[in-house]
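Sequence in, structure out. Go.
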Amino acid sequence: MGPRLQEGASGMIRNVLVLFSGNVFTQILSFLSGLIVIRMLTVQQYGEYSTITGFVNMITLPLAGFFSLAIRRYLPIYTREGRHDLTSGLIRLSLMYAAGLSTVLLLIFLMGGDWISSRVLRGVHREYLLLYAALVPLMVFNSPLSATMLGLERFRAYTLAVNIMPNSFRFLHLVLWWLLIPFKMLGAILSLITKSASTLMATLYLLRKDLGALLSEKPSYRVGEWVRFSLPNALRFVVSYTAQNIGVILLGTTRHLSDAGIFRASSILVMGVHNITLAFSSALLPRLSREVVSGGGVDTTGRVSFMNLSAASLMIFPFILAGEWILGFLGPDYIRGYPVLLIMSLMLLMEAWTSAWQGYIIARGRTDLNLITYSISSTTSILASYLLIRSMGLYGAAWALVIESSLNALFRGMWMLRISGKLPIDIRQVLLILLMTGLIVFRLWRI
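Output:
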C-alpha cells in the first residue's frame, strides 16, 4: 500500500500556511546567518565567497533538479490512481540519476579545480573552491528527496527537514565559529555543508516509511514521458539560474570582488522575500495537478497570485523606508547597494505576482512553454548583464534581473490566455502593483 495524500477542502490553505510559516522562520534564520557571514568576512572575502558559491551552484542546482518537478507533478496523480509501481519507478530513476550526476560533477571539480580557480574565476583560492565542491553530492540528492516530500504533500515534514532544521544548525554553527574559531572563510563554507548534510539526514529519516513503501513496490517506468516533461523545465532552469547568478560572477571577475560582495548582500534580502512567497507556489502545484485533470484551476491560480503579491508587498515596504539603514547595519561599505535593493524589488514584485501562473502552466503539462519563456527572458538577461555591468556596474546587474522578470510576466500571461482563455487578474492586483511600483520608482528618483 503506497502513501496517502492529504485530503480536505481546506488542504491547500493549510499547506500554504505550513510552508509559509516555515519559510518565514527559515528566512529569518537565513538573514541572520547571512548577516553573520558578512560580518565575519571582509568585503573582499565576501565577494570571493559569493563568486565561488554562485559558480558551483550555477552548475549544480539546475542539473540536480532534473526530475524534481516531474516528481512533484506525477506523485499526486499516481497516488490518486493507485499506480504505486509508477511512483516507485520515478523515485528509483531520480536516485540513480543523482548518483551518476554527483560522480561526474565531483570529477570535473577535482580534475579542473586549478584551471577554474585561476582562469575562470580569476584568482579565487582553489582550496575554498574544492571545499565547497564537496557539497555537490548533498545538493544533488537533496533535490529529488525534497521534491518527494512535496509530491506526497508531506508539508510539515518538508518544513522541518528542508527549512527549520538545516537552517537552525547552520545558524548555530556560524554563531559558534564567529565567536570562538579563527579562519572565518573556512567556517562560512563549512556552514553550508552542515546545512545540506542535515537536510539530507532529516529528509531520509522523515521519509523512511514512505520511501520504504514506495521502493518495496515492483517498479514500472515511463522514462520517455518523464524525460520529455522534465527536459524543458531543466533547460529553462539552466538558463534562468545562470541569469540569476551571472551578475555576481561577472562583478567578481570583471569588476572587483568587493562589488560582488555588495551586490550579493543586497540580493540576499530580496531573494529571502522571494523564497518566502515561493511557499504558495510550492503548495499550489500538487493541488493544481488534480484540479487541472478535472478541468479547473484558473480561479485557484488567481487567488494565490493575489496572496503572493500581497505578501511580497508587505515585506518589500521596509526596504523602501529603511533599506539604507538595513544595509548600513551590515557594514558601511554595503550602503552603496541600496539602489540595487530597490531595483531588485521591482523584479520581486513581477515574480511574486506571476509565479502562480507558471504553476498553472506546469500543471497543464506545458513545460515546453516555460522553456520558451526562460530561454528568451534569461538569455536576454545574461546578455543584458554582460552589457550593463560594463557600463553601470552594480546597478546594471540589478536592472538585468528586472528585464528578465518583466519578460517572464509577459510570456506567462500570454500562455495563460492561450491555454485557459482567461487571465487570472483582478482590480486588487492591478492597484497593488501600481502602488508598489510607484513607491519604488519615487524612492529611486529621490536618491
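Check: Residues 4-9 have pLDDT under 50 and may be disordered. The radius of gyration is 21 Å.
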